[in-house]
Write a structure and sequence with these properties.
Length: 445
């Protein structure tokens, strides 16, 4: 590693290389930003940018939060800062410069020319992570759609290699089309094909959703800021083996598992993609189908990393995305805040959090790693799902095992007495299942 001293604005990243491309992460911000209560500091935003870069195995050799008096239309940062950065990047042989902000196509091109290295912005970085992590056909299609939408916006005429003319075809060919027009047309065609494929995927998911409604098991959706511990909690509750690493966006494709609550009631738990601040609009649109499981959920578990210094800001970001999806606190769908990672809190902060949560029904502190309070979380789900349930007493003939099995699958058997003539059961069930039971009994009458 080159030990040349970088410019004073740049700080060595001391966590060590991971074997990837040599990179610098820069967070430019307007002076005065990040000073309000509960607002992320520039330093916190920089660390999140470093985490995003490491998620695609970039070696972050240096990092810097850069205060700006104003944003330059051509290069985002001023010429003096560009000269300073260029010197530091050259000294350390940097291959990728990550700007943790949104760059216009012209700004990205000009920065690459001035810094003489590859430049990507926050949107491009998130897309790279999504591209690596998507596994299902739906996830792959959604990532490609977002990639192409982003790539299309990068086609600017100021790139000389896109100015070449192609010859006309036949009598109507005219002078031909420029390379940029041909590239844009090919992207439009591919976007059209992907959207058609996604429509088919969405229809298939809709069929699966209808099948689940007929079962029907309640759906509980896990949501939260990326790296809040959703997948670790999912694995703890379901005994599954979903990828759960200390990485941003470790989970992209939705995962669903059936679990049994203490009462014997069965539910479907859904793990979803993590949210993040300033997620590109077209990326939210592309993953809307993935997040549709949240709209179908009877209960939303908002998993929070309470040990993170920006936990309140992360909470607001998640609630904003949920609001965009049509899920808000106060509607008929309960939202429980699962305060995860209490094992990482200092004793005093932990005691204060537990005391505060004990007075509220919508807060539940847990540790997905140690399992602390996870049984209580399952009990709380049982309590919420029992709200509005109706009690039914029924005599089931000994030879009607199918009906008895149906009752166990669709309700909570609170009492059972076996006799010579049959089985007398007391069942607690949702109103819709009560209606199904009545229809079933009417058909047999």
């Amino acid at each position: 590693m080159d030990t040349t001293t970088p410019p004073t604005a740049l700080t060595f990243d001391t966590d060590g290389p991971v074997g990837g491309r040599r990179a610098v992460v820069l967070h430019p911000y307007l002076k005065g930003e990040g000073q309000g209560r509960g607002v992320r500091s520039p330093e916190a935003r920089l660390e999140e940018g470093v985490g995003l870069a490491r998620a695609i195995r970039l070696d972050v050799l240096i990092k810097a939060a850069i205060p700006l008096s104003s944003i330059r239309p051509a290069t985002f940062v001023g010429p003096g800062k560009i000269a300073e950065l260029a010197e530091g990047l050259k000294a350390l042989d940097i291959e990728v410069a990550v700007f943790d902000c949104t760059l216009s196509p012209v700004q990205q091109r000009n920065l690459e020319r001035e810094l003489k290295t590859k430049v990507i912005d926050r949107t491009g970085l998130i897309l790279e992570i999504f591209g690596e992590r998507a596994r299902t056909r739906e996830g792959t299609l959604q990532v490609e759609l977002a990639h192409l939408t982003y790539q299309k916006s990068r086609l600017v005429r100021s790139w000389t290699h896109l100015e070449r003319q192609r010859g006309g075809v036949g009598f109507m060919g005219g002078p031909g089309e420029t390379q940029i027009e041909a590239d844009r047309r090919m992207i439009d065609e591919r976007i059209g094909r992907i959207k058609r494929d996604l429509e088919q995927v969405v229809r298939t998911r809709g069929l699966h959703r209808e099948a689940r409604r007929r079962v029907p098991y309640p759906i509980i959706a896990l949501v939260g800021y990326t790296n809040a511990g959703k997948s670790t909690l999912f694995n703890r509750l379901t005994q599954a083996d979903v990828m759960a690493e200390d990485l941003l966006f470790a989970t992209l494709d939705p995962t669903m598992r059936e679990i049994t609550l203490p009462s014997g009631r069965r539910i479907i738990l859904s793990d979803t993609v993590g949210f993040i601040s300033e997620l590109p609009t077209h990326l939210i649109a592309a993953f809307r189908a993935t997040l549709e499981e949240v709209l179908e959920a009877q209960i939303v578990l908002h998993v929070r990393d309470v040990a993170h210094p920006d936990t309140e800001a992360q909470r607001r970001d998640v609630l904003e995305v949920l609001k965009d999806l049509g899920v808000e606190p106060g509607d008929e769908r309960p939202i429980i805040e699962v305060l995860n990672k209490i094992d990482l809190l200092e004793e005093e902060a932990r005691a204060a959090l537990l005391a505060s949560a004990a007075r509220r029904q919508d807060l539940l502190p847990v540790s997905a790693v140690t399992g602390e309070n996870c049984p209580r979380l399952l009990e709380r789900l049982d309590e919420l799902l029992s709200t509005g349930y109706e009690t039914v007493e029924l005599d089931v003939a000994n030879d009607d095992g199918a009906l008895l099995s149906w009752l166990y699958a669709h309700g909570d058997i609170t009492s059972r007495e076996d006799g010579e003539a049959g089985v007398h059961v007391v069942v607690s069930m949702a109103p819709e299942n009560r209606q199904r039971l009545e229809a079933r009994l009417a058909r047999k009458a």
